[in-house]
Design brief:
Layout: E1 15-24, H1 28-31, E2 36-47, E3 50-56, H2 57-63, E4 68-79, E5 81-87, H3 101-114, H4 119-135, E6 138-144, H5 149-161, E7 166-169, E8 171-172, H6 185-199, E9 205-211, H7 219-231, E10 236-241, H8 245-254, H9 261-266, E11 275-279, H10 285-294, E12 297-300, H11 302-307, E13 322-325, H12 337-350, H13 357-371, E14 389-392, H14 398-403, H15 410-420, E15 426-431, E16 434-435
Helix pairs in contact: 4-5, 5-6, 6-7, 12-13, 12-15
The structure holds zinc ion.
Zinc ion binds at residues 85, 87, 240, 278, 328, 331.
Length: 440
């Protein structure tokens, strides 16, 4: 992959990308597959970091005769992928063997997260992580950092240098974690507030209030973060919910007064629109109803759920809630949103639900954008949206190429890449209207 440098600043030059284009007029889970709009001989015009127009190639070539052409033939042009739940500090421990959630945290996660007290290590991993995901077509992530403020500075610094729209927060834990990874209710509030004021709204960056999950936060810490959220209501709040049955039993012991897992957050002001819950697999009827009533977001992490043995997410929730898709690096076993779509397909099959390629692709782009309340900016190709794009080779390996030969429409052509594609399928990535390719 060659390195391509960004264009000169100040240019008003228009770029015109030609290829098969996938965009959405609505939500296929609620409005049906007609909400997806593939354009076989399509084009996307971009300038000054935004999408100017999308449509038929002939129309846009006539409209922008001076534009710089990027002819991708039958390759697919899509919004960049959005990974709505990751732990960038777990980059180096991805694909570690043999543990379930609580053992995983104690054996692999906590020792690795201790290393992020060192700003140089945090910066090195943040850069490595973002280059890995950019090579896989992911242009926005929403990440947990560690308890160290330095880990947030490192991530936002690396995301800003690459021009990314990105979401992150300091992970807060004041119990059931090693001493070196514990803050307090007060220091979690103070550090989160300082980082929020430093980073939220700078360039394309957003701060996310981030208690790890109820087992590692006292009610006092959850209350302090609930108070912080009331002071900054336009921020997102992210945490984990009902990932494994052992975890739920532990929460019941730790919070004997709570009705259920969600109630441990609800009691402290951490359930409302803008809340983003990872996993949410083993929900009670009350929790489901309350999540819908609150307008909360869920994030499905299928490679993590199978890798750590957590369970099967119920995709019918996407009909009544904002549902995003995520790798959950490093509990998830892959950095690729293509592999994550494949796992989402497989998990749904095990629940008797069959996800269409248009639904899988939507989850990895506009679905995740909606989960992060960013659907008016990213995750779709439409005029005025930020120009974060990925160009996909739909015949990137001999195995995929031979499987697409009899395809009769874009969806048949796309599905083998969803199931078997990897970073070789990603031929170009645009961030903020500039082509970015990294070969580190
Ligand atoms: Zn997670």
């Amino acid at each position: 992959m060659p390195l391509v440098w960004p264009h000169d600043k100040g240019t008003t030059m228009t770029d015109l990308l030609l290829g098969q284009v996938i965009c959405y007029d609505g939500d296929p889970f609620c409005e049906g597959l007609g909400a997806a709009r593939p354009i076989t001989r399509g084009a996307v015009a971009i300038a000054d970091g935004r999408i100017l127009a999308v449509g038929e190639a002939g129309d846009l070539r006539a409209r922008y005769p001076q534009a710089r052409l990027h002819d991708h033939g039958s390759r697919l042009i899509s919004a960049g992928f959005i990974d709505a739940h990751v732990h960038y500090p777990q980059t180096a421990i991805i694909a570690s063997w043999g543990k379930r959630l609580i053992d995983w945290l104690n054996t692999y996660t906590f020792p690795e997260e201790m290393r992020f007290a060192d700003p140089a290590y945090a910066a090195a991993i943040a850069g490595r992580y973002l280059d890995l995901v950019l090579q896989r077509g992911t242009t926005t992530v929403c990440t947990y950092c560690t308890i160290h403020p330095e880990s947030v500075d490192a991530f936002f610094g690396a995301a800003r240098a690459r021009g990314l729209r990105a979401y992150a927060g300091k992970t807060c834990m004041d119990r059931n974690a090693p001493e070196a990874l514990r803050d307090t209710a007060q220091s979690a509030y103070d550090d989160s507030k300082r980082l929020l004021e430093k980073w939220h709204g700078v360039d394309r960056l957003s701060y996310v209030i981030t208690p790890r999950f109820s087992p590692t936060s006292t009610p006092e810490q959850l209350a302090a973060l609930g108070a912080l959220w009331r002071e900054y209501p336009d921020c997102l709040m992210q945490t984990h919910l009902s990932e494994q049955t052992d975890e739920i039993a532990w929460v019941r012991e730790l919070f004997p007064q709570s009705r259920d897992y969600l109630d441990t957050y609800e009691a402290q002001g951490l359930v409302r629109e803008g809340a983003v819950y990872g996993h949410a697999i083993h929900l009670t009827d009350r929790e489901r109803a309350r999540l819908v009533e609150a307008g909360a977001s869920l994030v499905h992490c299928p490679t993590s759920n199978t890798f750590i043995g957590s369970g099967l997410f119920d995709m019918s929730l996407a009909q009544s809630l904002r549902v995003g898709l995520a790798t959950d690096t490093g509990g998830g076993s892959n950095f690729s949103m293509l592999r994550t779509m494949a796992a989402a397909y497989e998990v749904a099959q095990l629940r008797g639900q069959s996800l269409h390629p248009a639904e899988l692709w939507w989850l990895a782009t506009q679905g995740s954008a909606r989960a992060l309340h960013a659907e008016d900016r990213i995750g779709n190709i439409a005029p005025g949206m930020e120009a974060d794009l990925v160009v996909i080779d739909l015949a990137s390996t001999p195995a995929i190429e031979q499987a697409t030969r009899r395809a009769e429409d874009l969806w048949q052509q796309l599905f083998p890449t969803i199931m078997m594609g990897d970073d070789r399928a990603v031929v170009e990535v645009w961030v903020g209207g500039r082509p970015i390719l990294s070969d580190s």
